[in-house]
Design brief:
The chain is α/β, with parallel strands linked by helices. The chain has helices at about 30-35, 40-45, 50-60, 70-85, 110-115, 135-140, 160-170, 185-190, 225-235, 245-255, 255-280, 300-310, 335-350; strands at about 15, 65-70, 100, 120-125, 145-150, 175-180, 200-205, 220-225, 285, 290-295, 310-315, 315, 325-330. The chain folds into 2 domains: about 5-25 and about 255-350, Aspartate Aminotransferase, domain 1; about 30-255, Aspartate Aminotransferase, domain 2. The longest helix is centred in the C-terminal third of the chain and has 25 residues, at about 255-280. It binds pyridoxal-5'-phosphate. The site of pyridoxal-5'-phosphate has 13 residues, from helix 4.
């Protein structure tokens, strides 16, 4: 996979966005208040990071020197790729550094690996999306520099056992890292972060784009041992996180009631999706994230287009390994999910 293959979702803003796993309810009102209170001098000056880093570290239960803020988790992934997957200048080996990417996966891992000169090694999925531990271990070579894991996974919503992450970390060649993308961990309620001190070759990535509704401001974080993060920090732009994002993050983290409300909506929405799929006889995978992968079969492309024509945007994941004939639907605010399901049912029935 290269950057040329990246199918960036079209810019569809005048309908119901259920295709990019965003927070369909928007951010906390406290975030808007904090942004409205931004002063001219705060915008004129390069942003200070200490209070936002401290707040984020407190939120994740780690010391501030174990955390780096990033311009969205996307920047964190690229920084990890730059730090660990660039062929080194004094490298006499003809082999490119390798990144193992169990499939299906967030496509950016393989793209970033190839952009920096590394080689993505794709591990094919098991039929039920259970984590392919043995296959991942078998793919590790002396050239493996990064294993990209996502827990719970995107686009399946399926989680992997924490022990599997530890096993992969224990088998990594010296100097390599396991990257655990926890973009959806807020929905799952589990995290590898407390395990990090015992596993210094693991870096966890988090985002505030999903449960906290800050996707438009671009704010994420990397957590790991200071020495493991050191080369990654060098690959993050000096002031890449802007002042509005830091202020928004602090406000969002304070409004715990808002996030808890959203997590409840997501749980209720997923139950609605499962019930609808059961009624329609559609296969789906129980999700620990804020979306559900549904097998709608050969008509998936036509279904997604028909829903789009009605202003409901879904994501066709048919080209991902193991996801043939599948679409992914964001489960956010219950009312939005109901609207999405109604259109899905309408176009499904029309297609029959
Ligand atoms: C697995 C995964 N990682 C990272 C990201 C990107 O997060 P951010 O919006 O913080 O860049 C996404 C967004 O969809 C994702 O699904």
């Amino acid at each position: 996979m290269s950057i040329d293959d990246y199918d960036k979702p079209p810019e569809l803003y005048d309908g119901l966005r259920l295709h990019q796993n965003e927070n369909t309810g928007g951010c906390s009102p406290r975030v808007l208040e904090a942004l409205a209170a931004l002063r001219a001098d705060q915008i004129a000056f390069y942003p200070p990071y200490k209070t936002a880093v401290d707040a984020c570290a407190r939120h994740l239960g780690v010391a501030p020197d174990r955390l780096a803020l990033t311009n969205g988790l996307d920047e964190g992934i690229m920084a990890v790729a730059i730090a660990y997957l660039r062929p080194s200048r004094d490298n006499t080996s003809p082999e490119a550094p390798e990144a193992i990417v169990p499939q299906p996966a967030f496509e950016i891992f393989a793209i970033d690996a190839s952009v920096v000169g590394g080689r993505a090694v794709l591990v094919m999925p098991r039929p039920d999306f259970a984590f392919a531990l043995d296959e991942v271990l078998a793919a590790i070579t002396p050239n493996t520099r990064v294993v990209f894991l996502t827990n719970p996974n995107n686009p399946t919503g399926v989680s992997m056992p924490m022990d599997a992450i530890k096993t992969v970390a224990a088998r990594m060649p010296r100097g390599g890292v396991v990257f655990v993308d926890e973009a959806y961990a807020d929905f799952a309620g589990t995290t590898f972060v407390p395990e990090l001190p015992a596993h210094p070759n693991v870096v966890v990535g988090r985002t505030f784009a999903k449960a906290y509704g800050l996707a438009g401001l671009r704010i994420g974080a990397l957590v790991g041992a200071p020495a493991t993060l050191a080369p990654v920090r060098q690959a993050i732009g000096v002031y890449s996180v802007n002042v509005a994002a830091t202020i928004a993050l602090e406000a969002a983290l304070q409004d715990t009631a808002y996030v808890e409300h959203y997590l409840r909506q997501v749980r209720e929405s997923k139950a609605l999706v499962y019930a609808t799929c059961d009624r329609l006889g559609l296969k789906y995978w129980k999700s620990d994230a804020n979306f559900v992968l549904i097998r709608t079969g050969e008509r998936t492309g036509a279904l997604v287009d028909a829903a789009s024509a009605r202003g409901i945007y879904l994501r066709d994941r048919s080209s991902d390994p193991g996801c043939e004939g599948c679409l992914r639907l964001t489960a956010g605010i219950v009312e939005h999910t109901r609207r999405g399901l109604a259109v899905l049912e309408e176009v499904l029935c029309a297609a029959l």
